[in-house]
Protein 1
Amino acid sequence: MGQLEGRTAVITGGTTGIGLAAARRFAAEGAFVFITGRRPEVLDDAVAAIGENAVGIRSDVAAPADLDRLYAAVADRGGGIDVLFANAGGGEFATLGQVTEQHIDMTFGTNVRGTLFTVQKALPLLNDGASVILTGSTAATTGTEAFGVYAASKAAIRSFARTWANELRGRQVRVNTLVPGPIDTPGIAGLAPDAEQAAELQSAFASQVPLGRMGRPEEAAAAALFLASDQSSFITGSELFVDGGLNQI
């Protein structure tokens, strides 16, 4: 049997990168997976890549009505939620002098507000003993230039995990933070305006990692599986770094 046999998982931002890799791994381990994404065509492609044990729901975590529609679909299937991977998020470069109201509203709207309501609205469906995984970032503690708003939003995620782990302990619901370092995903490439600068950015990220390379989405997905499964049954309120040693050495 797979590590998630018979369980139901919900993964926001599950159409590309870490989210898609986790959805494929969770499904391979026996879970039925709900994924979300904002672009219908990309969502359809992701569901096809995951296989028959997946359903895609078009949803923007920054829109509460979209989350309501997601959880209505989960409730209709029955069985509740055993794993909630609140993964949707993003950011853009902006120095202190460049930050605008729109920039901070968009970043915090998705990363902080979106994560909060993703978990809050799932509470009635979370089964006792469920695993909640939040996606943080090594940027939360590194002081990376021009990444201040994104870093602050991910620092909030770390704080959420500690508080929610305490609040949900009576239901034996575990809440942990997956902390990726530079992972080779479309989101990383999208930080640059063109392919050439994207390659330069990826090279710069890789040079900072002690292991000498960027991580693969599948490596982050393996860590997410650990947090989702019974293998981490005595772990809550913690951070699991998947960063090639970036924040450790």
Protein 2
Amino acid sequence: MAKLHFHYSTMNAGKSTLLLQAAHNYNERGMETYLLIAAFDDRAGKGRIGSRIGLSREADVFGDNCDLFEKIRNRMEEGPIACVFIDEAQFMTRDQVWQLARVVDDLNVPIMAYGLRVDFRGELFPGSAALLAIADVMREVRTICHCGRNATMVIRRGADGKALTDGAQVQVGGNETYVSLCRRHWRAEVGL
């Protein structure tokens, strides 16, 4: 029975590494996978999922106007898919998350979505909010704050090194831009 899974965390928890490892496990057993990533996230190269530890793999891309149900159904015409893996799932729209639910329910293909839960302002991303509402299985991928507590928040640093408290929700970046923190240290950084 297929399910919609959401693996969420903050930055630098190893979500992409876990995705690549899980996809490899399927492929090693002779099962086809279909990997997707947000079109504008080209940190590992256009159409590539990459991890901080150097693993990467080619993936198809999706944008805001992409119908993921149709995209996956069209890919299935080329051959069976054992599982669909989506990196940067927070960048999906609410409608796209419901399209994934249709893939699970109507096409009986499991979906493994990996993404951030909240942005640097402590607000849910649209894709994450929808996944938290309708996913069959949710799993927090843990990472730690500098104090040793579970990091559940992230700050975005400006050019001056200080935490930003406003700006566009989406800005692609890595360790040079974002720092994962526990709620206590996030509050201290943003002045709450």
